[in-house]
Amino acid sequence: xxxxxxxxKDLHVAFDTRRGTVQALRGVSLSLAPGEALAIVxxxxxxxxxxxxxxxxxxxxxxxxxxxxxxxxxxxxIGEKPVRRARGIWxxxxxxIFQDPMTSxxxxxxxxxxLSEVMELHLGLSHSAALARAAELLDAVGISGARRRLEQYPxxxxxxxxxxxxxxMGIACNPRLLIADEPTTAxxxxxxxxxxxxxxxxxxxxxxxxxxxTHDLGIVAGLCQxxxxxxxxxxxxxxAVDDIFERPxxxxxxxxxxxxPDLDGGSKxxxxxxxxxxxxxxxxxxxxxxxxxxxxxxACRVPQTLREYQGGSVACRKAGIDAWKDVVA
Length: 329
Hints:
The chain is α/β, with parallel strands linked by helices and about 325 residues long. The chain folds into two domains: about 5-225, Rossmann fold; about 230-329, no CATH class. The chain is about 30% helix and about 25% strand. It is built from eleven helices and twelve strands. Helix 4 packs across helix 5 (about 125-140).
């Protein structure tokens, strides 16, 4: 098995606010093999985007990395003695697509200027060579009339086209890892499918490793091989896509799947997980899902760490029990 290109170990991230210090990430660990696609799923506030921003070195005041490390191909990006070439890795070897292209693209610069800037900075191309390459990239991501589009501004493009521009910018320097943070959130269903199909094709053609961050389990199966489920700043379950969908172990993962409608129009009853995630200024000492779990026991109040389970891992004493069976009966 190939050595991982990305290793995140026991990562802790905190944000200082007026209400206190928010423990946004609490010991996150994950790894990614070359060419692999990993989905990080969970509801808003679970720590998905903060994990991606940490990998990209984007945590800044009032945030701080308070513990743990991020290694890229064995070299430390985050943690003690980060490698000097880290800034050259971000944007070149590791690229990121943000969820809102309208706010990610500069409204005062043309599409061509923004695309060429990336390649001039990281690849040392001349402006004319970078513009020629930019036109090729737009064509590669399915934008017609590429030469004309280079002269346009972001507001002149549709949401789907702006997202394609972001993907073109992400692959401009031939990265080994592409992080896609909710890349289809603001798009209609038809365009969502097109963007996901494009990402899958790029992964196949370029051998990209992909981290897909999403709250929508429905878009995971067609693109990813593995899934990491996050809740309250922690990873609570990992596994192969088929295992997670067919045999979810953690009650929270089961609840997420039970709340997703069947695409085939089935008549299963949907589950609503009562309650809200815990506040992370004073996170619970034990299982973060304790107050919302319907199979909890007093022993669940102690910290729950990930352990190996059916080819993946899970942080739950009641792993494998169908927590919602009686609810949907």
